[in-house]
Amino acid sequence: MNSGLVNAIIAYIMWGVLPLYWKLFDDVPAGEILSHRVVWSFVFMGILVALQRRWGDIKRIAASRSLLMSLAASGLLIAANWLIFIWAVNNGHVVETSLGYYLNPLLNVLLAVVFLREKPNRGQWLAIAIAGAAVLIIAIDYGRFPWVAISLAVSFGLYGLAKKKIAQDASVGLLSETAVVLPVALGYWIYLAVVGKTTAWTLPAPMFVELLLSGVVTALPLLFFARAAARMTLSTLGFVQYIGPTIMLLLSIFVFKESVSPVLLIGFVLIWTALVVYATASVRSTKIAKAS
């Protein structure tokens, strides 16, 4: 559990600061950035798996149709999440991306209860209720249906559930997921070349190198997340996730200068209150379990 918590904190801090990275490529369309993100993630993970000498695991996955289908689903879910996130950041919707990842822990709890039969205690349910009220307040204050936030929450929530269901090594699993969407990414490269709309390949050399590093930037937090998911309950993992959107919200206010209402700040305080309540209830539950 402690190892899982450390991995989760590292992953969510990395994801929290990612908007700073994607903002470097404001002039590159989101779809093209996504295609590079997939390709270079595959390359990076391929090198990592080769160094770990895990090709036997890849062959075992290739021989299992059910496992291939599960990894294909998780690969498509995370690719959809990446595309929405990149588009939102580069079109001035960082506040809404943070709202999406505030929604995600609540969805994680629902998924955990329905599919994994996890049972939150009373204190944890109280925290969930506080966080739910906060998100509802934020959504109402936002003034329109937050489709970006909902899409991000659903895609990443289902991805987290898939990672809990698929018992795979983090490196091998991520390589398999990127391999699923790799043909689509390469096909998109060919399409852009044919219609003469490629942008990334015309970037200055230093910026193109930064784009190449998107494989590392993408893979590292996902590796930490996969290790955390294997060691923690889905509901607890979801609440630790509030670290990421909180960082995004702070970036949207102080770096990207997006407008933030007082109601949103109240919601922010309520969500962190819920996090403290949830953590306290979880620690108390653990102590009771050990004592018995």
Can you describe this structure?
The structure is a single chain. With 292 residues, the protein is mainly α. The chain contains 13 helices and no strands. The protein has helices at residues 2-22, 30-52, 55-62, 65-90, 94-115, 122-142, 147-165, 170-195, 205-212, 214-231, 234-240, 243-254, 262-291. Helix 2 runs antiparallel to helix 8 and helix 5 runs antiparallel to helix 11. The two termini are 19 Å apart.
Amount of helix: over 70%
Please count the beta strands (DSSP E, at least 2 residues each).
0
> If you average the pLDDT, what whole number results?
87
Number of helices: 13
- Envelope shape: globular
Rg from C-alpha positions? 19 Å
The description of the largest β-sheet is: none
Beta-strand residue fraction:
under 5%
Protein structure class? mainly alpha
Poorly predicted runs of 5 or more residues: none
> Terminal Cα separation, in Å?
19 Å
- Strand and helix order: HHHHHHHHHHHHH
Could you name the key traits of this structure?
mainly alpha
Put the structure in a nutshell.
The protein is an all-alpha fold and 292 residues long. The protein is built from 13 helices and no strands.
Secondary structure elements and pairings:
Blueprint: H1 2-22, H2 30-52, H3 55-62, H4 65-90, H5 94-115, H6 122-142, H7 147-165, H8 170-195, H9 205-212, H10 214-231, H11 234-240, H12 243-254, H13 262-291
Helix pairs in contact: 1-10, 1-12, 2-4, 2-8, 2-10, 4-7, 4-8, 5-6, 5-7, 5-11, 5-12, 6-13
